[in-house]
TrEMBL record:
This is GTPase Der. Belongs to the TRAFAC class TrmE-Era-EngA-EngB-Septin-like GTPase superfamily. EngA (Der) GTPase family. The keyword Magnesium does not apply. GO terms for biological process: ribosome biogenesis. GTP 2 binds at residues 213-220, 260-264, 325-328.
Length: 471
């Protein structure tokens, strides 16, 4: 059942993302004093008074560009005779700003209700009068939100915004949360819930899939190709994506949350400020993901940074799929070429030999459809739990063929038992006599044999040694 959509708009730096984070009770949107911090629009679920709706935070652009988004939407819908009725000279936005305009236009098209945010401390500006006139032409419900009313000093500032003709300005402070409860009360009054069942089921099992890689390897292009829409901004400029972008999709009746992240660079090259904040968010996304797509460039040599990212993933315990993008730039793509590059990747990432490699082109769409199939397969392997009887037979077979090797001393250890203790990632405990040790190479042998017998494709395996008294 489709939920109502509420879209936040406003000029740059009025606190749209701060309001988004406050209403969704999340820290998803990146916040800074730099105008235009938000580029891709953020979407999250809000629940209030037993009602639910999707909240969209749009990218930061100047008012002229925001008006352009609205006017283009009006033109597309046939609600305006001219594409632009506001004569301010020709606007030539940069490539990224053009994409932000497209995304804002897409968000407004989905909107059932609009939250127009203004800055109460800055007061009413002439450009906001012009913006209000254009917003009215959308013929959609609008709530005027007067932000930054952080204390009594500013309590009378919202009154001047009555001049916009959009009704009561709702005084809020995204910084301390005051007024946001009253605002949500008004939002749920204005939105129309879909007909049908009164209660909407939202909590279903989902797989979180994070898309990571160096800057400009094609992560956002890949996400857009999977989704079939321009959900995230794509440009030739590195670091275009700043905030993790969550999009919910269904594939074979399975809910998947696809998360596009900011490109990760070497620690020494990460600039303070926005890039550092974006990097921190990306690392948090990796920790909370179920499966991670490591995106690389098939036509380029792998780098130390690729190696660093692969190491991060190995330690994270997440399911891993290596995605070799830009396959179309290789020219020849026969079976011999594929085998050669698979061998190259396995040689470069020996500690990820369990991760499947998919060769794709986000530009042409080659093999992109196979990624979600592989995500389901890896997720299933992460959740695999072996029967103890099968493990007992496995241990007897492999220790009979290859005796355990001690880490030190002459005594040969005996593994009493091998028990699976958890999933995601699968973890096992090998119990030995307390006077003996087990060489790390034998643990690696155990892992390889577990994979050979039981699969575990795309998921790390952890094996711990437990020492026991005499048995």
């Amino acid at each position: 059942m489709n939920l109502p959509t509420v879209v936040i708009i406003g000029r740059t730096n009025v606190g749209k993302s701060a309001i988004f984070n406050r209403l969704t009770e999340s820290g998803k949107a990146l916040i800074s004093a730099i105008a235009g911090t938000t580029r891709d629009y953020n979407v999250d679920l809000v629940e209030w008074q037993k009602k639910s709706f999707n909240l969209i935070d749009t990218g930061g652009v100047d008012v002229s560009s925001l008006k352009k988004s609205i006017e283009e939407l009006l033109f597309d819908q046939g609600q305006a005779k001219k594409q632009s009725q506001i004569k301010e000279g020709k606007i030539q936005p940069l490539l990224i700003e053009k994409e932000i305009i497209k995304q804002t236009k897409t968000a407004l098209k989905k909107a059932d209700l609009i939250l127009l945010v203004v800055d109460g401390q800055a007061g009413l500006l002439p450009i906001e009068r012009q913006l209000a006139l254009v917003v009215k032409k959308l013929n959609k419900p609008v709530i005027l939100v007067c932000n930054k009313i952080d204390n009594l000093k500013w309590q009378y500032r919202p009154n001047e915004f009555f001049k916009l003709g959009l009704g009561k300005p709702w005084a809020v402070s995204a910084a301390n949360g005051s007024g946001t409860g009253d605002l949500l009360d008004e939002v749920v009054k204005k939105i129309k819930m879909p007909k049908g069942k009164k209660k909407i089921s939202i909590e279903t099992e989902k797989i979180k899939v994070a898309v990571i890689g160096k800057p400009n390897v094609g992560k956002s292009s890949l996400v857009n190709k999977i989704l079939g829409e321009n959900r995230v901004i794509v440009s030739p400029l590195p670091q275009t994506t700043r905030e993790p972008q969550d999009t919910e999709i269904f594939f074979k009746n399975q809910k998947i949350i696809l998360i596009d992240t900011a490109g990760l660079r070497k620690k020494g090259k990460i600039e303070p400020g926005l890039e550092k904040m974006a990097t921190k968010k990306t690392l948090n996304v990796i920790r909370s993901a179920d499966v991670v797509l490591l995106v690389t460039e098939a036509h380029q040599q792998l780098t130390r940074q690729d190696n660093y990212l692969a190491g991060l993933l190995k330690e994270s315990g997440r399911g891993i799929i290596i995605v070799a993008n830009k396959w179309d730039l290789l020219g020849a793509n026969d079976e011999k070429m594929t085998d050669h590059i698979v061998a190259y990747y396995q040689n470069h990432f020996p500690f990820l030999n369990f991760a499947p490699i998919i060769f794709i082109s986000a530009y042409t769409g080659r093999n992109v459809k196979n990624i979600l199939e592989q995500v389901l397969a890896v997720h299933q392997e992460q959740n695999k739990r072996l029967d103890q009887k099968d493990l007992n037979e496995f241990l007897k077979e492999i220790t009979g063929k290859h005796k355990p090797v001690p880490a030190k001393g002459l005594g040969r250890p005996k593994i009493y038992s091998l028990v699976q203790t958890r999933i995601k990632p699968p973890e096992f405990i090998a119990s030995i006599h307390h006077e003996y040790t087990l060489h790390f190479s034998y643990l690696r042998f155990l892992e390889n044999q577990l994979r050979k017998h039981f699969g575990f494709i795309g998921t790390p395996i952890r094996i711990r040694v437990k020492k026991q008294a005499n048995r």
